[in-house]
Design a protein that fits this description.
Chain A has about 375 residues and is of the alpha+beta class. Chain A has helices at about 50-55, 65, 75-90, 95-125, 130-150, 170-195, 195-205, 210-215, 220-225, 235, 255-280, 335, 340-345, 350-360, 365-369; strands at about 10-15, 15-20, 25, 25-30, 35-40, 160, 160-165, 300-310, 310-320, 325-330. The longest helix of chain B has 12 residues, at about 105-115. Classes of the chains: A alpha+beta (about 375), B alpha/beta (about 170).
């Protein structure tokens, strides 16, 4: 510009088929040279209308649907939905069921954050090495899920009133192995990335969110905590007995992409702490209560939410005493975290827009449902 | 634990900032009058006592004769959550004022409610069909959607030993 070079804005489609959009998601960016002037999100390529389908199925039949919304953290989705139904119908879960749920949700957080951190490193140009390391560690967790529930990604393990099966004998040694091998891996990632000059210059000060902006845009999870708001539903609104475990809420101070990355990395350490405590104090007893298959909750509504790896995952259910929910609404964290995408990308370069999108950690199955 | 405000508590907060804004209350929810919705939520957001700053969840619900838009709003400092609702009785021209000027986070969720329920939000800066394409016939999450010509019955048919949910008669759109 300073040299008098004439340029004019044009529209650039990032996606829908592009590795850095993490699925079929499209950003319609108006750019002037390298600078992003406007960014419009185009979504819905993966819309399966789960909320409509769920209205025709029984409460138990809806559990597999929740696996397929956020397919990187199916255990958390199962948990959120089961909590909502239990709240609606007033069902108590036995202590062992709660502890198993906590272990599974935290293992899922490890697996999901592995993907988030690895893919984010990929987006910043650390091509393939970190993401392969993350896949290697995530594989061990998926093996645990396979042993426990029979599936690796779409686990369908939680049930209304508890979990589907009790733990197998080989479960505990496998988890202990992960607990032992994970901290060196996290240290390795930190050595590789958080002190890396290229990584820092790509992420520091990129996509800055002030606390006010983060609150006003309804953000949740690591997005909110990266901006310095210590809000974690596991502490603020404990479910499944999270109040019994000792852990901290990591927060960032500058609200940029680097802070969100560091928050995720630190959350994995806290998850390890929780898993260790839950495993040490795993109570004996039944893993589930008896719940009728044709469950008919009393007339009313319930909103239950959990801290999923991506943020606040809420389920809003309305019952009319029928065998299926009258209204089934998912509050998807990745969908609502995108509210701030335009504000974060406009004014930056195209390369920064990719970094910002990576730092939000979207899962398109959850955006489109 | 996050305290869930009862309908009466939420109504008392709303009445204290904008008198005459409350329509009715239930055990869990407070119904606001549509014409006072934006002013009430803005005042509640600024009020030190209510401190309802974080719009968590916004969605529509169809009850055949009327539709509701629900707002779950929470406070980080006070650690409580309130449920507000607004009713709209006109199915052909369902309209609820947009709260985007107050909560930027409503932008996506109001677009979704418009896309799937056909509720218009006057005051929304850019209302479009966010998940489906422009010109998609009908509003899928409305209860009468499947009665439209060409509509199919999804799902497994009857639940074992249960009759289908009784559906009120619906005018088929010719």
């Amino acid at each position: 510009m300073t040299q008098g070079i004439k340029s004019e804005p044009f529209i650039l489609n990032i996606g829908p088929q592009h590795p850095s959009t993490h699925g079929v998601f499209r950003i319609k960016a108006t750019v002037d040279g390298e600078k992003v002037l406007d960014a419009e999100m185009v979504m819905g390529y993966l819309h399966r209308s789960m909320e409509k389908l769920a209205e025709e199925r029984t409460y138990t039949q809806n559990i597999p649907f929740t696996d397929r919304t956020d397919y990187l953290s199916s255990m958390s989705n199962n948990l959120g939905y089961c909590l909502a139904v239990e709240k609606l119908a007033g069902i108590e879960v036995p202590a062992r069921g709660d502890a198993i749920r906590v272990i599974m949700a935290e293992l899922q957080r490890l697996a999901s954050h592995c993907m988030a951190v690895g893919a984010f490193a990929n987006d910043t140009g650390a091509w393939q090495t970190p993401v392969m390391w993350c896949f290697r560690e995530r594989e061990k967790i998926l093996d645990i899920f396979e042993v426990t529930s029979g599936a690796r990604l779409t686990c369908n393990y939680m049930r209304i009133g508890g979990v589907a099966f009790d733990l197998r004998p080989q479960f505990e040694p496998m988890v202990r192995k992960v607990l032992k091998e994970f901290p060196p891996f996290l240290q390795e990632m930190e050595d590789l990335l958080s002190g890396n000059e290229i990584f820092i210059s790509r992420t520091r000060g990129v996509g800055v969110l002030t606390p006010d902006m983060a609150t006003n845009s309804s953000l949740s999870g690591p997005m909110l905590r990266g901006s310095g708001i210590a809000w974690d539903l596991r502490k603020a609104d404990p479910y499944c007995g999270y109040e019994k475990y000792d852990f901290d809420i990591p927060i960032g101070y500058q609200g940029d992409s680097f802070d969100r990355f560091i928050v995720r990395l630190e959350e994995m350490r806290q998850s390890l702490k929780i898993i260790e405590q839950a495993l040490d104090g795993l109570p004996a007893g039944p893993h589930s209560t008896e719940v009728p298959l044709a469950l008919r909750p009393p007339k009313g509504e319930a909103y239950a939410r959990i801290e999923s790896p991506r943020g606040e995952l809420g389920y809003y259910l309305v019952s009319d005493e029928g065998p299926s929910p009258y209204r089934f609404h998912i509050r998807p964290p990745s969908f609502i975290n995108l509210s701030a995408l335009r504000e974060m990308t406009v004014g930056g370069t195209i390369a920064d827009a990719i970094v910002v999108l990576g730092s939000i950690d979207i899962v398109v199955g959850e955006i489109d449902r | 634990m996050t305290r869930e405000l009862t309908g009466l508590e939420a109504a008392a907060l709303a009445e204290s900032v904008v008198p005459g804004s409350v329509d009715k209350t239930t055990a869990t929810a407070c119904y606001l009058k549509p014409e006072h919705l934006v002013a009430t939520l803005e005042a509640l957001k600024g009020s030190r006592e209510a401190d309802l700053v974080h719009l968590t969840n916004l969605c529509g619900v169809d009850f055949w004769d009327h539709m509701e838009v629900i707002y779950h709003i929470q406070s980080f400092v006070k650690n409580h959550i309130a449920l507000f609702k607004v009713e709209t009785w006109d199915r052909e021209h369902a309209e609820v004022p947009s709260v985007v000027p107050v909560f930027h986070g409503a932008w996506m969720q109001e677009n979704e409610a418009y896309d799937l329920f056909g509720i218009k939000f006057p005051g929304h800066p850019n209302l479009y069909r966010i998940l489906l394409w422009e010109g998609y016939p009908g509003w899928p999450l409305r209860k009468d959607f499947l009665s439209m010509p060409g509509g199919l019955q999804p799902g497994l048919g009857d639940f074992a030993g249960e009759a289908r949910r009784q559906e009120p008669p619906v005018k088929v759109i010719e």
